[in-house]
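Thread: quick sanity check before group meeting

JM: Hey all, I'm pulling together slides for Thursday and realized we never actually wrote out the predicted structure for the chain we discussed last week. Dropping the sequence here so it's in one place. If anyone has concerns about the input, flag it before I start.
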Amino acid sequence: MPQQHAIVIATFSRRMRLRLDDGTEAEARIKGKRLKPVCGDRVTTERIANESDWLITDIQSRDNELTRPNMRGQVEVLAANLDYLIVVAAAEPKADWFIVDRYLCAAEIMNIAAAVVYNKIDLDPAAAVEELNNYAAIGYDTVQCSAETGQGIDAIRNLLAERCAIIVGQSGVGKSSIINCLLGDSLQKTSTVSGKTGEGRHTTVNSAMISLPGSGSVIDSPGVRDYAPALESTTLAAQGFREISKLAQHCRFANCRHLREPGCAVKEALENRTISPRRYESYKRIVNLTEQIARN
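JM (edit): ok, ran it. Output follows.
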């Protein structure tokens, strides 16, 4: 059977949905157990004789990977070949800015641009101003929006033009609702926040790449209650915080961890309040978590 190249646009455990070179979509299975395609992967595939399904036979080299450690401490790849990341926080459930930082850390490691979107401003317009200003000051795109009223959706649409992006964040922050606004319909399932726990209910079970009107595409990923990037070493943590990485060039020691070392430019900036104390606390948490995972 002749082979074709395709992009994985949805994942359902060991089954996939593909966009073939000619633009058509097809269902596919995976050859063997070693291949583990994810949304965004470029794959080699061939038609299965006498079936409508295709067979994925190979995964082409990835430009980058969005990762996390699984329960066994092994690296789990969530998506691949991205050039933009949008992390969504919201007035409800209460924003966890440490999770936001961890996703931004992953974007830095992947060497892709990122944005922080604060949804549901119709509930509390002023709640996130200080944090968003901190992110904007270090160069991240920031948007306040309401998927309920449509405010800010055009700004998100402009950020996504010509890009292959992923939208991530806590369960219940409205990622799928934002995508529905971008599409102008209700393609993605949504649900309300649980009244009992105040946490979001999971509505996106599988990752799916959605083409946006005009240009660009976005991968809708399952919501999380926690997230951490899979880092090979604690030295990568500093690279994941752009303000720390910039200051690190002025530290006395090249291998400074920015924790207790003398002559640390990061600690000096912290004392002078020229970097965010909460962001620095976030950096320390990622260092500690990476060390814990390495010990297990």
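AS: nice. Confidence is low (pLDDT under 50) at residues 189-205. The radius of gyration is 20 Å.
JM: adding both to the slides.
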